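[audit] Reproducing an earlier prediction to check determinism. Same input, same settings, fresh worker. If the tokens differ from the archived copy the diff job will pick it up downstream; this log only records the rerun itself.
[audit] input (364 residues):
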Amino acid sequence: MVIKTDVCIVGSGPGGALLAYLLAKQNISVILLERNREVAREFRGEFLNEEGEGILKKLGLFPKVEDLGLLRIEQIEYWQDGQLLKEIFPDVYQDNLGIHVPQNHLLKVIVDEAQKLDSFQLMLNTRVTDLIQDEAGQFCGVKALKDGSELIIQSPLIIGADGRFSTVRKKAKIPVAVKNHGYDLLWAKIPAPYGWKPSIKNALVNGSQLTLFTQAKGFIQIGWNIEHGSYPQLRKQPFEPFIEKLIRNFPELGNVVREHIQSWQDFILLDVHSCQCETWAKDGVLLLGDAAHTMTPTGAFGLNCALGDADLLAQQIHHCITEGDTKFIGLVRAEPKRRAYIEKVQALQVDMEKSYESLFTAYV
């Protein structure tokens, strides 16, 4: 089976889905490929900052997301051994310090709006296996398996929005520089106890960051930094002394933690790294979000940068098509400005990681 389209986007996360929607709004035919059987799935990077909030409001999507449910963070706190050291609140010009948006809500809004457009097509359970090049070396399509059947999508522009281990990036042979940040992250999710305020609570455990993110619909997401590569050895140790460190810092969570986090199996491990690709645009292939510039969880910038990529690229791609730039040279020329911004954010993440402990010593 062979299908033709103006743009083929691989990966229906927020960046890929938003770009597909924005292109389809401009009557650019776009096919969005998703390897899973549904768009809705489990995410952990779900916090909007001012950039992401501003983009959704500009596009008129924010009210629809809010109708499905979100949570404005009212304060950021720093704790040590069960004692509150410091609180930060929004200033007079803000109504939040970040917004938790379940990505299933965000993706539902974007995809529902896109599916109203004739120029948009979503293909689920479709896994890209290879890229196609013409005689001149220009990428001109993808090979995929949809529901187990072979499929070829011919497209002059292929966009990899398929995350930190991008298949598109690998198949296009785009070099990537990976940076180890010295830590990995354990995730867990628990119900919030009655009266829990919408907040981000930080603690310092043996020099490592422990953060509790309040989520919409009454949950708390726990993010616990551990030394990079240490998890296999850590799992061999008794679990109870480890989890007691969390309870000692946040005693009010004692009962709910003991009920819902009872073994190492109740944590999910994230291998933390950042990366920068040598180029984000090459011979008809374009990368965005984590496929182009993997972010660490620090500061929750990843989602917002992906939305920013999509917002900017939609304009640039439209310009290339309307100007007859069939090789999409304009995307290569436009890359440096956005790259400079991303590199600035990644440098900020490193500074935040290095200075985290000092946020506590200043108040002890």
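[audit] rerun output stored. Observation attached for the diff report: The chain has a mean pLDDT of 94.
[audit] end
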